[in-house]
Specification:
The chain is mostly helical and 206 residues long. It is built from 9 helices and 2 strands, in the order αααααααβααβ. The chain is elongated, with a radius of gyration of 20 Å. The model has no long low-confidence stretch (mean pLDDT 89). Residues 10-70 form the HTH tetR-type domain. Residues 33-52 bind DNA. This is TetR/AcrR family transcriptional regulator.
């Protein structure tokens, strides 16, 4: 069981997370052992178990870090809408941004999702982390519609699921055929039409 907090815990946790990111990227979730992660971090197994119970716990910590980066990036895009020439395209392009970090995360998260599907308890935990991230996306969608002067006519939680599915599916196709499909192409092309279908203009006030 993880022990109580110490002054060194934040640094130890950060080292483990950094080592896990690198190891998972190279070997995948199944191919990465706790021993290898600890060796790369320059820490003992005892240090690992004082911070995490399992390798799955380590993944979920990385999940939350990645989710916060996504939320921060999209929040900035929504905040910049007032000065953007094409506000919706700005957000969708930012959503589809793909660099090496995003590529590695997609590979790891896809592998872990398959793992979760095979293990119901893990699936429930993953669903809870997804739910918390989706709450932030719902908040961002509400702000986006407000900035666009439109009122959503559908459940925003379902819309968040749909936009996530479009993003992840598009990313998968882009990684397979990078010369044929840019990561943001499907979202930028089709989601603006969807926004019009699932919302209505807000009547101007008196």
């Amino acid at each position: 069981m993880p022990k109580g907090p110490t002054k060194r815990r934040p640094q130890t946790t950060a080292r483990l997370l950094e080592a896990a990111q690198e190891t998972f990227a190279e070997r995948g979730f199944y191919g990465s052992s706790i021993e290898v992660i600890c060796e790369r971090a320059g820490l003992t197994r005892g240090a690992f178990y004082s911070n995490f119970r399992t390798k799955e716990d380590l993944f979920f910590a990385l999940f939350d870090l990645h989710g916060q980066r996504v939320v921060d990036r999209l929040t900035q895009a929504v905040d910049e809408l007032d000065t953007a020439e094409d506000p919706l395209r700005t957000v969708l392009t930012r959503m589809g941004a793909l660099d090496e970090t995003e590529r590695r995360w997609y590979l790891l998260s896809t592998e872990f999702t398959l793992h979760a599907i095979r293990h119901p308890d893990t699936a429930r935990t993953l669903a809870e982390h997804d739910r918390r991230l989706r709450e932030e996306i719902v908040r961002l969608l509400a702000g986006l519609f407000d900035r666009l002067g439109r009122r959503p006519t559908v459940d925003l939680d379902s819309l968040a699921r749909l936009t996530t599915a479009v993003h992840e599916g598009s990313l998968a196709q882009s990684l397979v055929e990078p010369d044929q499909l840019a990561p943001e192409e499907l979202a930028v092309t089709y989601l603006p039409m969807l926004v019009d279908l699932v919302s209505e203009p807000v009547a101007p006030g008196p």
